[in-house]
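Weekly structure sync, notes
Attendees: PL (lead), two postdocs, one rotation student
Agenda item 3: pending single-chain targets
PL asked that the sequence for the first pending target be pasted directly into the notes so everyone works from the same version. It is reproduced below exactly as submitted, 131 residues in total.
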Amino acid sequence: MFPSRIWREMPQRYRLEAAVCKKCGKRYYPPRLVCAECGGRQFDTYVLPEEGKLLTFTVIRTPASQFSDLAPYAMGIIKFDDGLQMMGQIADCDIDKLKIGQKMRLEFRKIQTDDTHGVLSYAYKFIPKWY
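Predicted structure, written out during the meeting:
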């Protein structure tokens, strides 16, 4: 990922922020310029919830080269109580024990290092809540 892209995406990546349309209340992550529901162009900042439930997931066994040291790893779609859905990596777990409907916690983590530019990339990951 190039430094300019990291800079543009910094608010949502580094503060876990989304956008909520002022006109209809629809929430978006990542934030967008135009609401798909009503066409509104004004948004408020919305702090993402800390917990949600796992809707679905897949296990990546043959990843892209920059993620080869992580394989196998899980990617999932998490739905928050407010209806917002996000996709992200599921970390710190035994992938064979993941279950649909399982509670997940949103955390801020390092995702990769770009050796060419020397840039560390941070973003969110989901961590299973075990009871």
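Discussion points:
- The mean pLDDT is 85.
- The two ends are 36 Å apart (CA to CA).
Action: rotation student to compare against the earlier draft before next sync.
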